[in-house]
Amino acid sequence: MNIPQEPAYWLLSASCLCVASLPALMRKIPRARAIAVVSLWLALCIATIWQSGLLPGLATTLISGVWGVILLAASLIFSGIKSMPNRRFEER
User: Fold this and answer.
1) Per-residue model confidence as pLDDT tens digits over 40-78
2) How far apart are CA 64 and CA 37, in angstroms?
3) What is the pTM of this model?
4) Burial of 49: CB neighbours in 10 Å, binned 0-12, 13-18, 19+
């Protein structure tokens, strides 16, 4: 299988990245929604492993997982920076 020419692999990889990015876009993350996002991400990663093989599937899983964690951390940091002046002036 030639991965660069396989459109199904790239579609599954892009969908893994999109689903991994969802928690960073949500304002509040209820438990049920978090479980749904994680289960959808895992299903897409498993489909990528099943469709393309172990090494490309694990690469997609690792890259999309790291991407999701980086985006979530960045969104938490930026939302904290935005709300920090509001909290400081409201407490006085």
Assistant:
1) 999 999 999 999 999 999 999 999 999 999 998 998 888
2) 13
3) 0.81
4) middle
